[in-house]
Amino acid sequence: MRTSxxxxxxxxxxxxxxxxxxxxxxxxxxxxxxxxxxxxLDREEAAINEVPRxxxxxxxxxxxxxxxxxxxxxxxxxxxxxxxxxxxxxx
Length: 91
Description:
The protein is mostly helical. The protein has one domain. It has three helices and no strands. The longest helix is centred in the middle third of the chain and has 32 residues, at 30-61. The radius of gyration is 26 Å and the shape is elongated.
């Protein structure tokens, strides 16, 4: 019994890439190429999503005390005020 259903789609320029991979013998069919591509995409997305997850976990587990919001905004204003003065050019 088939566990998946056929999907039809237009590949545009990627059609030649699929055909070349099948012709090379690296894959037996276009379906194999597409499945391999989707597995690679899943791995790539998982790796990309891991970075923000790790950063969030690191921030949550940070033992240092929280910085009050007023202080954060004051620091940001001071930072941007300093950048604005350094970037301004005389006409």
